[in-house]
Amino acid sequence: MIERDPDVSPELVAAHGLKPDEYARILALIGRKPSFTELGIFSAMWNEHCSYKSSRLHLRRLPTKAPWVIQGPGENAGVIDIGDGEACIFKMESHNHPSFIEPFQGAATGVGGILRDVFTMGARPVACLNLLRFGAPEHPRTRHLVAGVVAGIGGYGNSFGVPTVGGATNFHKGYDGNILVNAMAVGIARTDEIFYAKATGVGNPIVYLGSKTGRDGIHGATMASAAFEADAEAKRPTVQVGDPFTEKLLLEACLELMRTGAVVAIQDMGAAGLTSSAVEMGAKGDLGIELDLDAVPCREIGMSAYEMLLSESQERMLMVLDPAKEAEAEAVFRKWGLDFAIIGKTTDTLRFVVKHKGEIKADLPIKELGDAAPLYDRPHVAAPKKPKLSPVEVAAPIPNSEALARLIATPDLCSKRWIYEQYDHLILGNTAQPPGGDAAVIRIGDGPKGLALTTDVTQRYCEADPYEGGKQAVAEAWRNLTAVGALPLAATDNLNFGNPEKPEIMGQFVGCIEGIGEACRALDFPIVSGNVSLYNESSGRAIPPTPAIGGVGLLNDASRTASLSIKRPGDKILLIGTTEGWLGQSLYLREICGLENGAPPPVDLSAEKRNGDFLRGLIANRAVTAAHDVSDGGLAIALAEMAMAGGIGATIAAPASLPAHAFLFGEDQARYIVTAAADKAEAIRNEAENAGVACEIIGLTGGDTLTLGAGIAILLADLMRAHEAWLPDYMAGVKF
Question: Which of the residues 16, 95, 425, 723 is marked catalytic?
């Protein structure tokens, strides 16, 4: 019995995520009713996840160029020049919806996909990072989601053989129905050996590489472009299944093949699978693509053209091959035990033609599948400004010593050791600073250079004021890199928001983009790659706006990096930056006072640049023994983290000009704590004054106690116990 394609009806169009006006656009574009397979192709290429139809109008305002940028947005990953003929290739992407439905495989395949984006361009992956957001700890699914996501990230990265060196994990009720799993990968390549997705040459063979195609992941991209409702569990079949061992073989085979000169263009089969990879390669090269699906290696019997085109089975690549090197290329892949099949050719027709079992299943204009995707200038409204809270407006409900002990054990500020110890962060042997500090540091090969890597965003600031929150997300990532002594070079972003069809959500997106763009320009920190993840909603409730920033910085000498741990007693403690005691949207306000209100701290970008450049000079000259940026929880948390990391106490004085709790827990921006030899501290303070940088000596290291003014004196051992206990106890099911 021959299975017939269903008739394209209004109900079927709606089920594919296409609006009536979008379907009318399709009819006008092709001059006829699409086939079922063609409807699937349009659904894949025109959904939000692939076309960026709600966001690309605004993304154009982000700075993407600099003298060191080799490739900005638009390719599989961004590329920057790091000197000596070497390039750093990196990107961050989301796997939010799949990870909520099936946390292990959703997170694992998120790691696999971002690794392919990097090695598709000819780079050997050297590090992974992540940014995770979970719901409230008391939510019945949170513990299950944390366990599955962490196991998935570790299981894939560890098996593939790349270190997971950094991340950022928070909890908030706003993510109860829609967690965030953002994965970042970093690779190294020679600047003259970078590969792109632009197809060239008419009649060149199109080759399918890697694993066989199955039915897993069909409609994955469409699912990622829709909000969750009560039927989220029913979408489990749209989650892909990963195989890190096959991906490792695919990496080695691709890099070996690239050295032969056989590769004309190469593209990862990611979201929308074979469809998007084929269309993007052809459209970028102003060529047509003709595919014969009878040649596609399948692991399931009786797969239709629709299923093969939309499958998101993992560990697959599509390549345009130099026909003279076909035999050599096939031999490479056969050696590694991977599928190698010629499934089509490039043409000069500018058409995307798909054949299966002797029938033409699709014949569409290839450029318009991408270029003619809807572009929306959606209505947006700015969030109302929240009033500034002065320090005296926020009363301290409990003693400061009790506040510090409670804060250090909260889900957001507690030790994440339980998470990162499930990741192999030492494999490859180049990790110079592992997880737990401001930024991870990895050495580059056998030379002296190193890369600093980080991910960060403070979503509560973005929700209160998207513009300031967007600025702060960039500034925080820039500070993290600076605090280890690296020169920040470029960033990737992962813009996680709710339904863009709601003006208030679109207003959050636009505001964050404006803030991100302004900060990137002021800090010479261009965005070179990224991802937009919209429709992060559950039953009509959006997540907090979460524009994650992944940053990369360069250390000319990785041995001159700084770390946050206090190294010895008797060093002076210096505070760089100005403190006003800003408590609006602070963790102190939320966790101790039970309030989430007020304006977030403003970001003075000139002060950020001035203070960061000054600190970087101190680190390069080895004038400081430890450095740490001041962020969540303020000065008290930053100093506690430094003391716990080094096992050495500290004593500081609190000024009489501010309420003690505002001085200790305020989250003023552009600040760092450093320690220095006692005989160098005054010279550093004088140097800062000459550079126009606020800097004061506030205390001394030593002892086994953290003494912060007259109100706090806590044994380090007690702090460390509280800091380390929360997450393991929570995951073990301990009741709180």
Answer: 95
